[in-house]
Design goal:
Chain lengths: 412, 423, 531
């Protein structure tokens, strides 16, 4: 199948739309901002008016945050978010991409540039005058929560360690840019948890998954980057088909699993196809191990109340919320499941000056729920959501595995 | 590597029937997963609990009419589940609502007497149980009514509603308040959020009060809040000094979203799991038993292994039962045999729209315990059942509730037997 | 009894008839046009919307082909806003005789139809859903044309220049005085009132009904064979170019993207009745099979609606021919003074929509002869109102307009982006209480949900604007429901069945329209209210 045909068939899912508007009840953006007409309107409805050779006319589709909730709740299987992504890509091709979109979509560049000068970079990102300048030149909102560079790279730690567990059970770790440049300790904890459960963790040389590029409509670049990543991971897949590629960045693992293939028209790329079927989100993996009786459950009590928010893109894995079942194994831990749609950041969406206010309005319901929950910490599987939540709720935000790590007693 | 999870029971479908079955199973102690392709019927229907409205004569009392229906139509879902399942499931649901996440939001009524509730067209529709926020619109309680809306709400036409109510004997008039909102097309959820804002309510009521006559009850579109509608209505009634009631409109249904929250909460509270975006695409069988179903998860299929399955997949409306372009009907999830499909060559549809359509009552063939034909461990609930046209006879929620409830009961009995054998 | 006097009475408000009125008015001739229904409700409004390049006729009917390409070029200039320049492709599928392609090319050359061969891979790149094994492909200047827009542009244009257009006026008698037709009597089908129209020349542009009008005029031998065909609209544009099978013309060999849908057509059934709207199951099945040949996976796409059109095929010979497709698609102008000794009467029949302007020109030339004047036709250069800029229509226009007023305008029919203000304006202008009339103007209810949402909303507006009683408003809604159902049930499967089920829940469940006051199943509440 040609990729053009694949995209034509993706578009063809609009035939399933019965205009029930369930998607519009769930869309976090259109419910707070009239600038986005809603997923039904921007997706299956407007798509009937879009002709390949004609210029894009609906600029409002750019306000779609790409959270994908619409596709998840659609009872008929319309690929709404994916149709919107296509329309945005075409729009961007026509309008061109602002410099900002070329920069913030490349966490690898930013990471490599910022890591060596982390203290200075982090300081300037906190300084108001610097942020105002950045806002005016690049279009990143001055108040948008930007993560701090760790000043070291996770892959350096992984390469340099000599005391890692050796085992016949090997597992490949796709750490993503968040862990690499901003939260290397997340990766260290994940490795510790997996080693505790008898896995040897292999960390291939790797780069970005391309999701930020895709979200901003730079499809050609996204395809290159994703293809490179797939080819970096592929050699680690053994013939017996059981190799697991695990990741803690739930948006990035989703990109590898399916989003890239669907939105970028790469269903038939054989390498990507093979790699994607081996990818697991860490909580997804640990729960399946538990289901098979293979997960160590020597958890010490943690007497705390925490809030858990399942990010849109964790929901997009279509496996339910495995983190909840895992956290339930920790004695004493009270988990309040948040019942809000989206934190608003949607990857890089909430950073943009023209979308920041919308993002904050989107997340308001969640922020209020966290505040009302009595929780000391917010747990969330996606790093960009954690940064948004920490900033908005003024509470620490952590990946669920941090609590597993703690309950295993691995830190002490 | 096979991705799989084990459960005692798996429910396919997250609408009214699926959530009912899942919650009841969880309450019976089963480890249960509800696999929802998306949101379901809950979000689309007015969320009154309709047990039996028309046969095709107007039904005064479902409990009185059910006996006759069951005798005359042994294939009807009510005949299979029995009157007790109907009344028990209604009580159970009322209980879920009363103890649910929405404060003081209760369902009133029962199967003994149908209430007459105005539709957005102003037609008085028979319904067994309604949310308390709609109860004020019950025909027998209404004197004169003002039907009120705002211009940006295209879903609701107060003048037409009022005209039809008047033609039905209830003196009504329409009022449109020119409330400013930031967009011309206000959607129901946006409107519901507005009504949750006390300042907006105050402004709204001040404008409305100036135009209301004494004794006029106020009918508003069913968008009076998502999280605490009882408080919203109570506040409106206090400010206006009269009865205020909700009128269900075209989808999306705000009362439906509330109903979903009630059931989802009940499921979670009982320890059940809900997976959204879980589209069942294949299954495995061993003789008469389905042993697992696979969902199209991201990247690879996720297999749910279970001892019991409930197919609450939504019938034709969701495409779970499909008529293809060669005019062949299939049950698409588990490939189960169907009943009530017109023979090849006979008409599937009639020229006249508002008549009984031949294909309408087709569904998955089941036995007296709702067990799907040819299987030992698959039960069917809700719109996938044959023998009824719920939108015509006003029985949608009743069938969903009663069949979900009954299927769970049969399975729970089976689980207890297994446990008894195992111990 | 009102009497109107005019120079030319035009019977028939299809493209040809209105074209005649427009042409005559531009030439300074006073005209009255009558049609028993709304404009373009006959054949003109019921075909697939293809503006022929002539490629289809090049081999079999060269005269028709030459006419088509000439008119295609003219209409692209004068009716630009009514035309979307989709372009066309003739493709040789695995089901076609490959040898025909060369015949086709030669015939196009001979008839002047622009035809350019492109690589099959290029065709597939621009139309990825085409059958992957097409072996040859040819570009031709097919396009699509919006008939209602065209007809109403001419109609309004003519009215502004003094012509009178009487829709919903049925001809009940054609007046004869010995050897002349002197006019007609018409009845307003809505009110019953009658009007006598005196005309120096009467033009019979009644299309498939022309034979009946001629009979009324006492003129024999005008045999118009109605050739009935079905067309099926698929929910979205499977292709953006008109696709033709490169073979001898047959059933189901054209797929036309028009507006937001793709239309597959058509069949050919002889019938005696121009009002025959039968849709046969076998025809439907054949259309799906034919669609599958052009676009694999066609049967998994969503079929939205089926309707019929009746071609007016004029037969001059005495022998009958039941395959109406073999009868020439060229038109015929019958000057009954010369042909039958009946003065003041002219019939224009046969033809196809693409050549309406030419047919009108020839007709008005004849009218001029009858009136004894010499006036030049200007319709080949005079733009239709709205088409002055010369820019052809783009599908995204409606979306673009809505985008400009995203937060200001309420959209009533979401599928077709019909705004509240345009709907209210149309309701006021037509004064009709039938939503179906509004539908023709604005495409209300013509999208995937087939009125699922907009029916209730539009009824609410209608109720207010026309100050209808509750019963009349209810009836308007029910009528529209039935009207929408009419075109769905013969092709109802898959996604559209899901939609119907959803709509059933909305109308019969949420709204309970079956029991609305005035509806058949309604009962007075007072009798039923429990005390």
């Amino acid at each position: 199948m040609t990729d053009l045909l694949e995209l034509a068939q993706l578009r063809g899912t609009l035939d399933h739309c019965v205009k029930c508007t369930i998607c519009e009840t769930a869309c976090p953006v259109s419910n707070v901002s009239p600038l986005f007409p809603g997923p039904k309107y921007a997706g299956p409805q407007s798509e009937r008016y879009r002709v390949a050779d004609e210029p894009s006319v609906d600029l409002s589709v750019d306000y779609c945050s790409g959270c994908g909730i619409c596709s998840q709740v659609c009872p008929q299987g319309v690929k709404i978010a994916e149709i919107n992504a296509q329309a945005r890509d075409k729009l961007k091709r026509q309008k061109g991409w602002p410099l900002r979109d070329r920069i913030i979509t490349r966490p690898t560049w930013l990471g490599r540039a910022g890591t060596p000068v982390a203290p200075l970079a982090n300081l300037s990102l906190k300084l108001k005058p610097a942020r105002i300048l950045i806002e005016k030149t690049l279009g990143i909102h001055r108040d948008a929560a930007m993560p701090a560079f760790a000043g070291r790279r996770f892959s350096a730690w992984a390469r340099q360690r000599s005391d890692g567990l050796k085992s016949v059970r090997k597992i490949v770790y796709f750490h993503g840019c968040g862990t690499e440049y901003y939260e290397p300790w997340e990766g260290e904890k994940l490795v510790a948890i997996l080693e505790h459960n008898g896995f040897e963790v292999v960390v291939p040389k790797q780069d970005c998954c391309g999701l930020p590029l895709q979200s901003s409509g730079l499809f050609d670049d996204a395809r290159k980057v994703l293809g490179t990543l797939a080819r970096a991971l592929d050699p680690y897949l053994t013939d017996d088909d059981d190799t697991i590629i695990v990741g803690n960045a739930t948006s990035c693992t989703l990109m590898l699993k399916r989003e890239g293939r669907e939105v970028l028209g790469l269903q038939d790329d054989p390498v990507l196809k093979r790699v994607s079927s081996h990818v697991y989100d860490i909580c997804e993996l640990l729960l399946e191990l538990h289901d098979r009786g293979e997960l160590k459950t020597d958890f010490q009590p943690i007497d705390e109340v925490v809030a858990y928010h399942a990010p849109c893109q964790q929901q997009g894995h279509w496996v339910g919320k495995p983190a909840l079942d895992l956290l339930a194994l920790i004695p004493g831990l009270q988990v309040r499941e948040m019942n809000a749609r989206c934190c608003g950041i949607a990857g890089t969406y909430g950073l943009k000056v023209e979308k920041y206010e919308i993002a904050q309005a989107v997340g308001r319901d969640l922020f209020d729920q966290v505040a009302a929950s009595g929780a000391s910490t917010v747990l969330c599987d996606s790093e960009t959501c954690r940064w948004q939540l920490a900033d908005a709720t003024q509470r620490p935000a952590a990946h669920p595995i941090e609590y597993l790590y703690q309950a295993y007693g691995l830190g002490s | 590597m096979r991705s799989q999870l084990h459960f005692d029971a798996v429910v396919i479908g997250g609408g009214m029937a699926g959530l009912t079955a899942g919650t009841r199973l969880a309450q019976a102690g089963a480890k249960v997963a509800v696999l929802a392709k998306g949101y379901g019927s809950t979000h689309l229907s007015p969320s009154t609990i309709d047990v039996l409205g028309y046969t095709p004569e107007r039904v005064r009392s479902p409990s009185e009419s059910l006996g006759k229906l069951i005798a005359e139509r042994p294939d009807h879902p009510y005949a299979l589940v029995g009157v007790d399942a109907v009344s028990d499931s209604l009580s159970w649901f009322a209980d879920c609502a009363a103890h649910g996440p929405l404060p003081s939001y209760e369902y009133v009524g029962g199967i003994d007497r149908n209430l007459a509730i105005p539709t957005a067209m102003g037609v008085l529709r028979p319904s067994a149980m309604v949310p308390s926020t709609m109860a004020g619109g019950e025909a027998s309680a209404l004197g004169t009514v003002a039907i009120v809306s705002v211009p940006s709400l295209r879903e609701f036409h107060p003048a037409l509603c009022a005209a039809n109510l008047t033609a039905a004997g209830i003196e009504s008039r329409a009022l449109t308040l020119p409330m400013a909102v930031e967009r011309a097309d206000m959607n129901p959820v946006g409107m519901a959020r507005r009504f949750e804002d006390p300042a907006w309510r105050g402004h709204f009521c001040a404008q409305l009060l100036a135009q209301l006559r004494t004794e006029e009850h106020v009918g508003l579109p069913a968008m009076l809040g998502l999280n605490d509608p009882a408080a919203v209505v109570a506040d409106l009634e206090r400010r206006l000094g009269r009865t205020v009631f909700e009128i269900p409109t075209l989808p999306p249904s705000v009362p439906g979203m509330r109903r979903y929250e009630i059931l989802r909460s009940a499921l979670r509270a009982a320890g059940g799991r809900l997976a959204l975006g879980a589209d069942v695409i294949s299954h495995e069988r061993s003789n008469g038993r389905v042993t697992s179903v696979s969902t199209h998860a991201a990247g690879r299929d996720l297999i749910y292994v279970a001892d019991w399955f409930v197919l609450a997949s939504g019938g034709f409306a969701s495409g779970a039962i499909e008529l293809d372009s060669h005019w062949v009907t299939h049950e698409r999830v588990l490939g189960l045999p169907l009943r009530g499909v017109p023979e090849a060559g006979s008409p599937r549809f009639e020229r006249e729209y508002l008549t009984e359509q031949p294909l309408a009552a087709a569904g998955v063939a089941v036995d007296a315990e709702l067990r799907a034909e040819g299987t030992e461990n698959v039960f069917v609930a809700g719109a996938s059942l044959p023998g009824a046209t719920p939108w015509r006879e006003g029985s949608g929620e009743g069938i969903a509730l009663a069949s979900g409830y009954r299927a769970a009961a049969v399975i729970a009995g089976g689980l207890r037997t297994e446990e008894g054998v195992a111990s | 009894m009102t009497t109107l006097s005019t120079e030319v009475l035009v019977i028939g408000g299809g493209a040809t008839g209105v074209g005649v009125a427009w042409d005559a008015t531009l030439r300074g001739i006073d005209a009255v046009l009558v049609d028993r229904a709304d404009l373009a409700e006959g054949t003109s409004g019921r075909f697939h919307g293809l503006l022929h390049s002539g490629g289809r006729y090049a081999v079999k009917d060269p005269r028709a082909a030459k006419e088509c390409i000439a008119e295609n070029r003219i209409l692209r200039r004068v009716a630009a806003d009514c035309i979307e320049d989709t372009g066309g492709l003739f493709v040789t599928t695995p089901f076609d005789d490959p040898a025909y392609a060369d015949t086709f090319v030669a015939a196009c050359q001979a008839t002047g139809v622009d035809c350019e061969e492109i690589a099959a891979s290029e065709a597939l790149a621009s139309e990825p859903r085409l059958h992957p094994q097409i072996s040859r492909a040819f570009r031709v200047p097919d396009a699509n044309i919006d008939v209602w827009k065209t007809v109403w542009a001419m109609g309004h244009g003519a009215q502004q220049r003094g012509a009178r257009i009487l829709t919903y006026h049925e001809v009940i008698a054609v007046h004869r005085s010995s050897d002349r037709v002197t006019g007609a009597r018409v009845r307003d089908v809505r009110t019953g009132s009658e009007i006598d129209i005196e005309a120096r020349v009467t033009v019979n542009a009644a299309g498939a009904w022309a034979g009946r009008i001629a009979d009324m005029a006492g003129v024999e031998g005008v045999r118009v064979l109605p050739g009935r065909g079905i067309m099926i609209a698929m929910n979205h544009r499977l292709v953006n170019t008109v696709i033709n099978r490169c073979q001898m013309p047959t059933d189901g060999d054209i797929l036309v993207p028009i507006r937001t849908v793709s239309v597959i057509g058509t069949t050919d059934q002889h019938t005696d009745d121009p009002d025959d709207h039968t849709v046969e199951q076998a025809e439907v099945d054949r259309m799906f099979d034919d669609g599958e040949k052009l676009v694999p996976g066609f049967r998994q796409a969503r079929a939205l609606r089926v309707w019929t059109g009746v071609r007016p095929l004029f037969e001059d010979a005495k022998e009958s021919d039941t395959d109406t497709r073999d009868v020439t698609r060229a038109h015929a102008l019958l000057d009954h003074e010369q042909r039958d000794g009946v003065g003041g009467f002219v019939t224009i029949t046969g033809g196809k929509l693409t050549t309406y302007r030419m047919m009108a020109e020839e007709t008005v030339d004849a009218v001029c002869r009858h009136l004894g004047v010499s006036r030049e036709c200007t319709t080949a250069t005079e733009s239709l109102p709205g088409s002055e800029s010369g820019a052809t229509y783009r599908l995204g226009e409606r979306l673009q307009r809505k985008e400009a007023a995203l937060q200001d305008e309420q959209v009533i029919c979401e599928c077709e982006l019909v705004t509240r203000s345009s709907l209210e304006e149309a309701m006021r202008r037509t004064g009709s209480t039938k939503l179906d009339d509004i539908r023709r103007q604005l495409r209300l209810g013509m999208g995937p949900c087939q009125g699922g949402f907009c029916n209730y909303r539009a009824t609410g507006l209608l109720h207010g604007i026309d100050e209808l009683s509750a019963e009349d408003a209810n009836q308007a809604l029910l009528d529209f429901l039935q009207e929408r159902w009419k075109g769905m049930w013969p092709i109802l499967y898959g996604d559209q069945l899901r939609q119907v089920r959803f709509d059933d829940w909305v109308f019969q469940g949420v709204l309970d329209v079956a029991h609305a006051p005035g509806a058949a199943g309604a009962e007075a509440v007072a009798a039923e209210q429990p005390s």
